[in-house]
Amino acid sequence: MVEVNAGRRRPSSVVSLTRVPELAGWHREGDEIVLGACLTYADMERGELAALVPALAQAARTIGSPQIRAVATLGGNIGTASPAGDTLPVLAALDAVVEVAGRAGGRRVPLLELITGVKKTSLAPGELVTAVRVPVLRGGQEFLKVGTRNAMVISVVMVAVVVDLDGQSVRAGLGSVAPVPVRAREAERYAGEHTDWSRGRLAGPAVARRFGELCAESTAAIDDHRSTADYRRRAVAVCAARALARALPPLEA
Amino acid sequence: MSTTTDHASLASSDDEAAPRNTVIVELTVNGERRRAEVPGRQLFSDFIRTDCGLTGTHTGCDDGRCGACTLHVDGQPMKPCMMFTAQADGCQVATVESLGTPEQLSPLQAAFKKHHGLQCGYCTPGMLMSAQALLERNPSPTEDDVRKAITGNICRCTGYQNIVDSILAAAADARGETYTPPSGAGAHPAESDGWVGKGIERPTDNRLLTGYGHYTADDLPVGTLYTAVLRSPHAHARIVRVDTSKALAMDGVDYVLTGQDAKDTWNPFPPTINLGYVLNESWPLAVDKAVYQGEPIAAVAARDPYLAEDALAAIEVEYEILTPITTIEQSLEGSVKVYDDWDSNIGMDVAFEDGDVDGAFARAAHVVRHSFHHHRYTAAPMEARVTLASYDRGSGDLRIDMSTQSAHQCRTLFSQILGMPEARIQVVVKDVGGGFGIKLQIYDDVLPVMLSLKTGKPVIWVETREENFLSGIHARDYDADLECAFDEDGRILALTGDWIGDAGCDGTNRAHGIGQIHVALFYGSGNYKVPAYRARGRGVVTNKAPYGPYRGYGKDVANQSIERLMDVAAKQIGLEPNELRRRNFIQPGEFPYEILTGPIYDSGNYPELLRMAEEAMGHVNFKARQEAALAEGIYLGLGYAMMLEPAGGSVPNSVFNANETATLRMMPEGDFLLLTGMQDIGQGITTAYAQIIADEMNVDPSDVKVICGDTDKVPYGLGAWSSRGGAFGMSSSAEAARALMEKLRKIAAHMLELDPFDLEPRHGGFDGPDGKSIDYRQIGNGVHLWPGPIATVPKGVMANLEETYTWQSKMVRWIPTDKGSLSIYTNHSSGCFAAEVEVDVETGQTTVTRIYAAHDCGKVVNPTIVDGQVHGGIAQGIGAILNEELRYDEQGNLLNTSLWTYMVPQATDVPRIGVGHLESPSPFTTLGTKGMGEGGPVGTPAAVMNAVENALAPLGVELTETPLSPDRMLKMIAAGRATS
Ligand SMILES: Cc1cc2nc3c(=O)[nH]c(=O)nc-3n(C[C@H](O)[C@H](O)[C@H](O)COP(=O)(O)OP(=O)(O)OC[C@H]3O[C@@H](n4cnc5c(N)ncnc54)[C@H](O)[C@@H]3O)c2cc1C
Ligand code: FES
Ligand code: FES
Description:
The complex is a heterodimer.
Chain A: H1 2-5, E1 14-16, E2 26-29, E3 32-36, H2 41-45, H3 47-52, H4 54-62, H5 66-69, H6 74-80, H7 88-93, E4 97-102, E5 105-110, H8 111-114, E6 115-117, E7 120-121, E8 128-135, E9 141-146, E10 157-164, E11 169-175, E12 182-183, H9 185-193, E13 195-196, E14 201-202, H10 205-217, H11 229-247
Antiparallel strand pairs in A: 2-3, 3-8, 4-5, 4-8, 6-7, 9-10, 10-11, 11-12, 13-14
Helix pairs in contact in A: 9-10, 10-11
Chain B: E1 2-4, E2 22-29, E3 32-39, H1 44-51, E4 71-73, E5 76-78, E6 92-94, H2 107-114, H3 124-137, H4 143-149, H5 161-174, H6 205-210, E7 225-231, E8 237-243, H7 245-248, E9 253-258, H8 259-265, E10 289-290, E11 296-302, H9 305-312, E12 316-321, H10 328-333, E13 346-354, H11 357-363, E14 366-378, E15 386-392, E16 397-402, H12 407-418, E17 425-428, H13 446-455, E18 459-462, H14 465-471, E19 474-486, E20 492-502, H15 514-522, E21 533-540, H16 555-573, H17 577-584, E22 593-594, E23 600-601, H18 606-617, H19 619-631, E24 635-649, E25 660-666, E26 672-676, H20 685-697, E27 704-707, H21 725-752, E28 760-762, E29 765-767, E30 773-775, H22 776-784, H23 789-792, E31 802-807, E32 825-840, E33 845-856, H24 863-882, E34 913-918, H25 935-951, H26 966-979
Parallel strand pairs in B: 2-6, 7-18, 16-17, 20-21, 26-27, 33-34
Antiparallel strand pairs in B: 2-3, 4-5, 4-6, 7-11, 8-10, 8-12, 9-11, 13-21, 14-19, 15-16, 15-18, 19-20, 22-23, 24-32, 25-26, 25-31, 28-29, 29-30, 32-33
The complex binds flavin-adenine dinucleotide and FE2/S2 (inorganic) cluster (FES) (2 copies).
One FE2/S2 (inorganic) cluster is lined by residues 59-62, 64-69, 79, 81 of chain B.
């Protein structure tokens, strides 16, 4: 809708998905959660879902205003494929898989393969996102966003950190720092190796700092009207370090 | 929620894919079932406003950011500008009109009225709908809950505090509790016996709270055409060819106006100010060359706004792109010129010198230098510009309804551009959704007028938010270079200032901003004694949008310069900044005080203002708190800035001149009508003026109706700018009342066969000796009806019940001395602003955690309204210094053209605001009042910057760039760390 009004698009027809019950809500299937494409941010912010996927709830809470959270959907956030889409780094960190339906039938695509560029997806004409699958994980999760102010702001930088205590891994999704959501693989590997998994703690505060620096190295940030590339890299480093230290508290140095 | 399946262009009417399709919707709006066939692409906000006629739902952005349009769909707050009407099919919709009525406000509406939760009222319906939804879900919200619940609703007037208090009070009330706003407010002046001095509620609020306001776009004559404007995508380009034929051939398009057409028919923009400036010759649409991105190229009038936009896509324009000038340096360098017929790009170059400046610097113990660049920003009122022109072909009369601050000047400017007799033009101003200076000129506003003349039909232009950023008026954007000589005790010996303003493409005609640098030059010395002063002010043109006022007009430039200099100097000299201020203040006993450049400061007590601010902020304990926080890695800072607000400007050779007239008329039935040329733009003058008349005439404010904003009704007057109401509007009204009082006394005495001196005024009439008494009604009836004037009006008294008074300031001196000193302001309100901040030195984010203003605007007429003005101004000041910036790239493309990227503060960005009052009455106005609308944005930015610099003192940071956005902050922090 944002683009229709700004005159960048003059659609000849628009399909509303609001009343398609199959796309609403969410349910659990074993160790997975299936999120309907029409799940709204308001749905994600609270209740049982927020407890199961806390980073998604944190991201949802930072999005827009109450008026927008009540209507804007997960499917729309994916369909928009904006570098600043708030749920995307969380979904990336969770290795989310997107269910797509089209005339030719359905398919499942990892989120990172679905989003191909700034506002570009690999959805074929007529294809729809119907659901998103994310795992239920044991471990801390943290979503941090830097905007130019506190709320109701399009992000300048986003970091989602997800800890999988059972799989003994740390995963980091970054947003607004490249045309598409990014995974900071090098940083993840480093953090995984410098964690005392038996106690579920980072080896020390320095690990979080180094993790942040490695995250910053995996970005391809640019200058734009919101901020500069240089600022984005620094902010990623700071946010990633803070997020990790919250999701996986360090042992005292 | 919806998905786009086709991206077909609607460029031309013969395009098969063009959606002429309609949908049928059935829905319930405010309990009433409706069935309608609407265009598939119609936005739901248009359906509500146009098809349902529910104009309480306002639009302020059309891209989901401002929240003015908020209504409830199936009980949820939603933004109908983000929905198609088709999506509301089957829904239950509730708009602001469903809450209460003007006669019977809902509890929430009543709380807004009681706590002054609205000023212009434009954001109010949306705010109420968000608040209502919150209270339905959560009957006991905290302040934080409330602020979060309204983050989607922008208010540009109130600073949010009174809105938050209104909502909390309504919630408490519903729980059977009473709400007392947390302290933070300072002491009010003692309540007077009369109406003046009382914070009475505004009677106008009942309309604005219930959707009964009348903003310009709310009432459209049948058959009104809509304007859409094609704007130059290039900052600097020659126009090779414009072909409008395809657009003109489209169904529903009545006319397409081009620059050449306008030039062939009408006159160029006349100047609005000229104090020896270089003027440009420009038309409302570019003729040969576009000089900024956003300049109008063509304007379409069409049957509906969607068709008008479609038609734009069918206009063909060929440009030859020229090198743009986007910085002051490029402009001064001058190899590219904005106007081919100018000698250079310099539009203004003025200088002043008095006292032995060089000698002072030679013997100074300390010489302090501070230079900075200040960014460009704009007012962004929630209602953008709107003009509705109705040319009556039968009578040849032209009526122009518009959202402006200055109806009479607009009338004259329209007359000059159109070459039309001025008396044939009527400018009508109804409710105005905020102005703050950008509605003081006519610019794009003339386009619908031209289209109405061409088509003979009513034509409206409702500015989009994007247009408002592109071509609405921009302010600030200047370089300042200051040097100050101090003796060993820190007393100022001499000051020099050099300011250069980036006036964009125009600071004299389309808008008059160049003069703000001129004003800065006059007030460079601020609240301090400066024995020797040298200053230069220049305004240069570039390929950016026109340059105009925004709640400041150079007072902000002067204030920011001297108050930043004070903190920088204190550090260098080794004194506390406030001690340095104290040593240099003009003292309370020295008023009226004439500064070197000519202005005469009327009254004030600067040391006391500073003391009040220090007390409110807990100054003595702050250092300990700051150190404790720093030990935990938290950077807290406390900063102060004095504020000087020259008010009531009287500028020669301009449309911002030096007189104001009021007519007070008693009705035969004994009530009163005040006609003023001042303009209510949400700041509440109609309430304040009614209080003044009520006291002068011994009646209640409800006995007084105040009329403004219709050039066919009110006497010639100049409107709302330069905070001139406190001097001009209030004085002329009070003087007209005093004259009428004398007339009534004479008539009453004649009717009672007494001597006028024997009469005592009393509520609603006069008492005489021996129980004789007469009411205003008896006088009014006596003069006009029973028996009539021959029997009741004494000789020598004109047989009417009205008096007109034209007030002029005695303080204004236009003949310069040989050194060039002048006096063009009557009042000098003052204040001390203090801010506490927390800076995250790793992310560069700054949070203002507390803010306080000690404020002195002379006699306070309505303290609630005054507080509201200060709150709103402070919020604008916080936004301005932290986030709001109009950024241009090297090609001259404006990068922030929506409220998404131009970040005005929302409720969560503004802390609780404390206001304390001091009353130093002005000896130069009838009631001792002073103008006060601009102090917030004038004083706040420097206070916040000083606080941030104080927080970062351990890192050796000096702030030389604004705004303090996170990226700039990190840069300046890194620079500080590197040098310290
Ligand atoms: C006031 C406001 C504030 C906002 N703040 C934020 C913010 O802070 N963070 C953020 O990330 N976003 C923000 N947005 C953007 C918006 O919330 C997201 O893009 C949102 O998720 C869109 O959801 P929607 O259902 O309204 O999608 P729509 O606007 O209807 O559609 C968006 C795009 O996605 C496509 N689409 C929608 N559903 C599907 C589907 N099921 N399958 C395939 N394609 C689909 C559409 O075709 C369209 O191209 C904001 C928007 C507004 C208006
Ligand atoms: S008009 Fe709907 S949010 Fe601004
Ligand atoms: S009262 Fe909120 S915008 Fe004017």
